[in-house]
């Protein structure tokens, strides 16, 4: 599912050949995760940092698996509720993963995992000044988006719906507005996607990429679902480029009226 | 020395962070470290002197969304 050169997408000067970004959590097994990543054709996967035991060393096997897949890693600050936690996590991630990329999450509410946008902007400013390339998990609020850009972000990742819900695009009006306001900023729908049609819809809105995890990892057949998402994203992007018609309220016959036989 | 390592109280015979990691069998494992909530880069571990009660976090790559 490799895109043509003209269809590559660029984040912080890095061109990648897939508009799907895939999370690595909650798969039935490491082997299924690896197969799903391959089936998706994705070039970027997300990962986290968690406590490591000197005896068990669970993280070392995972790191080996990811390296073998040959994909770029976008580490996250998942679970951080404060600027301090997020900044420290990002610093640790940069050293371990060897990348300035960070998917910045500052969570405001444990039930909805709603981004805490004030802390998000502050953390984005601190990290950008320190040389990080920040991918902020945010809402579709245009004012917050402006602040994030001012803080140094060159990518924005508004949520489709709360993380893990699978509800799809809860507010297409807001997402469409965001696309219209920031035509030159790479925009990624991150979180809430449940089905391939949701991902296709995001691409039809003109979004540059989609980041998802649960929709694939918890699917009945994660590998088949990964491929389905790849196809949906390609179809949605192609549809966007092809120029969809404007919706209208009244019916309009597609078959010519002229020349219709008079049979009444 | 009494330390809190990844949330668990432990008695560790080490005066600095590098020595603590060695004593806790991390060897050459790919980890990042923080002491009392502040990141300590790998190159600075040997010079990061520890004191009783210090909270050490040792993390590694893991699945994430």
From TrEMBL, chain A:
Its main location: cytoplasm. Its EC number is 2.8.1.10. The keyword Transmembrane helix does not apply. 1-deoxy-D-xylulose 5-phosphate binds at residues 164, 191-192, 213-214. Signal peptide: none annotated. It is found in: Cytoplasm. InterPro entries: Aldolase_TIM, Thiazole_synthase_ThiG, ThiG. Residues 11-256 form the Thiazole synthase ThiG domain. The active site is at 103 (schiff-base intermediate with dxp). SUPFAM superfamilies: ThiG-like. It is an enzyme of class 2 (transferase). It catalyses: [ThiS sulfur-carrier protein]-C-terminal-Gly-aminoethanethioate + 2-iminoacetate + 1-deoxy-D-xylulose 5-phosphate = [ThiS sulfur-carrier protein]-C-terminal Gly-Gly + 2-[(2R,5Z)-2-carboxy-4-methylthiazol-5(2H)-ylidene]ethyl phosphate + 2 H2O + H(+). GO terms for molecular function: thiazole synthase activity. The gene is thiG. Gene3D superfamilies: Aldolase class I. Belongs to the ThiG family. Catalyzes the rearrangement of 1-deoxy-D-xylulose 5-phosphate (DXP) to produce the thiazole phosphate moiety of thiamine. Sulfur is provided by the thiocarboxylate moiety of the carrier protein ThiS. In vitro, sulfur can be provided by H(2)S. The keyword Repeat does not apply. GO terms for cellular component: cytoplasm. Keywords: Cytoplasm, Schiff base, Thiamine biosynthesis, Transferase. Pathway: Cofactor biosynthesis; thiamine diphosphate biosynthesis. This is Thiazole synthase.
From TrEMBL, chain B:
InterPro entries: Beta-grasp_dom_sf, Mopterin_synth/thiamin_S_b, Thi_S, ThiS/MoaD-like. It comes from the Bacteria. This is Sulfur carrier protein ThiS. It comes from Hansschlegelia quercus.
């Amino acid at each position: 599912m490799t895109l043509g050169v003209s269809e590559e997408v660029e984040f912080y000067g890095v061109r990648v050949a897939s508009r799907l970004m895939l999370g690595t959590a909650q798969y039935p097994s490491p082997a299924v995760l690896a197969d799903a990543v391959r089936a998706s054709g994705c070039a970027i996967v997300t990962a986290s940092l968690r406590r490591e035991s000197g005896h068990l060393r669970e993280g070392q096997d995972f790191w080996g698996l990811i390296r073998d897949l040959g994909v770029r890693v976008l580490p996250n600050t998942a679970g951080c509720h404060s600027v301090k936690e997020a900044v420290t996590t990002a610093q640790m991630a940069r050293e371990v993963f060897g990348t300035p990329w960070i998917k910045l999450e500052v969570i405001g509410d444990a039930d909805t995992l709603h981004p805490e946008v004030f802390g998000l902007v502050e953390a984005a400013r601190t990290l950008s000044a320190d040389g990080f390339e920040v991918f902020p998990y945010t809402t579709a609020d245009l004012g917050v988006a402006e602040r994030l850009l001012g803080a140094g972000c060159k990518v924005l990742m508004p949520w489709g719906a709360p993380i893990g819900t699978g509800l799809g695009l809860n507010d297409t009006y807001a997402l469409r507005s965001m696309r219209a306001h920031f035509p030159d900023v790479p925009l990624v729908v991150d979180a809430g996607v449940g089905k391939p049609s949701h991902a296709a819809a995001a691409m039809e809105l003109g979004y540059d990429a989609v980041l998802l995890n649960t929709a694939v990892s918890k699917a009945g057949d994660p590998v088949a679902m990964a491929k389905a998402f790849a196809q949906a994203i390609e179809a949605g992007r192609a549809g966007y480029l092809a120029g969809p018609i404007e919706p209208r309220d009244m019916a309009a016959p597609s078959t010519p009226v002229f020349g219709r036989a008079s049979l009444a | 020395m009494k330390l809190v390592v990844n949330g668990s109280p432990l008695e560790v015979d080490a005066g600095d962070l590098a020595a603590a990691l060695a004593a806790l069998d991390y060897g050459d494992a790919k980890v990042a470290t923080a002491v009392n909530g502040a990141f300590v880069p790998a190159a600075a571990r040997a010079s990061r002197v520890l004191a009783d009660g210090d909270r050490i976090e040792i993390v590694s790559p893991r699945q994430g969304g």
